[in-house]
Structure formats: structure tokens, C-alpha cells
Design brief:
Blueprint (H helix, E strand, L loop, with lengths): L6 E6 L6 H13 L5 H21 L7 E8 L3 E8 L23 H8 L2 E7 L2 E9 L3
Antiparallel strand pairs: 1-2, 2-3, 3-5, 4-5
Helix pairs in contact: 1-2, 2-3
Length: about 140
């Protein structure tokens, strides 16, 4: 399968809703008619969760712009999300779900459970998130 075109979306916070990410992914799924439902739903849920959390928590009280780029390959799908929010302390290693009565802290563990790779870095004044889901063959 040849590499498919990249799909890019730019959002600003606070967004009216997250439907723009669903619309972006609808374009991607049209080009991947054979992707399994598990891969599709897992990646979609992870990307929606990451985008919503970035727009809500990246820099509370200030407008944040984020750019979502989705790339598809024969064996995987990748998303890169970059945002202009404040630098954060993100710990991705050995992250567990919080206590069942906790009001927050489930986003990153949920994303990690849904994708095969999740990376975070700070490049200059930009937060960079990259997630990859390898297709079930």
C-alpha cells in the first residue's frame, strides 16, 4: 500500500467542541477501508483524548493553538500533535491509572493503553506529542 497523504488540522482553545478531530479522522478512514475496527476505534479514542486534554490543560486560562497531523502507512497510523501551551512535566514511563476515586489523571494511561507508542518532548516553545498505532495484521 503506498503512503497516503497527510491530514492536518489546526485548533485553538477553548474549542466549541472536538468534532473537528472526528471530521479529520473521517477523511483518514475513507482512505483506509480495510483497517480493523479495533485499530480504528483505539486510535480515534486516543487522539480525541490527547487533543481534548491538550486544549484544556496546556495553559489554563490562556489561548492555546494546537496542530494535529495524521499520517498513514501500510502497517501503522501516526499522529503528531504540537501545541503552544506552557512547558509541562510529563512522565510517560510506568504510568498507572489513578485511584478509582481520583477526579483526574486517567488521560495519559488511557492513551498509552490504546496506542503502541506515545512520546512527549518540548522543542523550543512547543510541546510535541507523537503517537503510533501499529495495525493488526
Amino acid at each position: 500500500m503506498p503512503e497516503l497523504p497527510q491530514h492536518v488540522l489546526t485548533l485553538s482553545s477553548p474549542p466549541d467542541d472536538i468534532d473537528a478531530v472526528h471530521d479529520l479522522l473521517a477523511e483518514v478512514w475513507m482512505q483506509l477501508p480495510t483497517i480493523s475496527k479495533t485499530d480504528r476505534h483505539s486510535f480515534e479514542t486516543a487522539l480525541i483524548e490527547l487533543t481534548a486534554n491538550v486544549l484544556r490543560h496546556a495553559d489554563p486560562g490562556k489561548e492555546v493553538t494546537c496542530r494535529v497531523q495524521v499520517e498513514t502507512f501500510a502497517d501503522r497510523i501516526e499522529a503528531t500533535l504540537s501545541d503552544t501551551g506552557a512547558a509541562g512535566e510529563v512522565e510517560l514511563i510506568e504510568r498507572d491509572m489513578p485511584h478509582s476515586l481520583s477526579e483526574s489523571g486517567r488521560g495519559i494511561p488511557l492513551i498509552q493503553a490504546l496506542v503502541d507508542e506515545l512520546d512527549y518532548s518540548r522543542v523550543g516553545a512547543t510541546n510535541m506529542w507523537r503517537m503510533t498505532r501499529w495495525f493488526q495484521l
